[in-house]
Amino acid sequence: MRKLQEGAVEIRGETDRVYLETKDALVLVDPVLERKLRITKRGSLTTVLWNPGAEKARAMEDFDDEGYRNMLCIEVANAFDDQIDVAAGDRHTLGTEISVE
């Protein structure tokens, strides 16, 4: 199901979202360390946000039971409408830059 994101994204539990047509930089506000992380990318129009939440974290053998409280996976991707088919001999470059403000 597709939805339109308006305003800031807040993580309040298990999260597994794919954002399409994400051209602009993403800014992650970290209130604990009083900083902002700016994530820019190239070769991608898709961004994936993931956090297992409490229940899935406890069920994962390779993940600390409370680890979900201190993490957010932000992935630069080519998914769904932004899928890239790379033919034999061709190539596609996908890049990410993370800076601290």
Please provide a written account of the structure.
With 101 residues, the chain is mainly beta. The protein has a domain at 15-82. The protein has one helix spanning 53-59, and strands spanning 15-20, 26-30, 35-42, 46-51, 73-77, 95-100. The strands form 2 sheets. A 3-stranded antiparallel beta sheet has the order 1-4-5, with no helix packed on it. The longest helix is centred in the middle third of the chain and has 7 residues, at 53-59. The chain is globular and about 45 Å long.
Keywords:
7% helix, three-stranded antiparallel β-sheet, 1 helix, single chain, 101 residues, mainly beta
List the helices and strands and how they pair.
Blueprint: E1 15-20, E2 26-30, E3 35-42, E4 46-51, H1 53-59, E5 73-77, E6 95-100
Antiparallel strand pairs: 1-4, 2-3, 3-6, 4-5
Strands, total number = 6
> Whole-number average pLDDT?
93
Placed side by side, the strands forming the largest sheet appear as 1-4-5
Q: Give the CA-CA distance, first to last residue.
A: 34 Å
Residues in helix, % = under 10%
Which series of helices and strands comes N to C? EEEEHEE
Strand content: 35-45%
Provide the structure class. mainly beta
Radius of gyration: 15 Å
Provide the low-confidence segments as ranges.
Answer: none
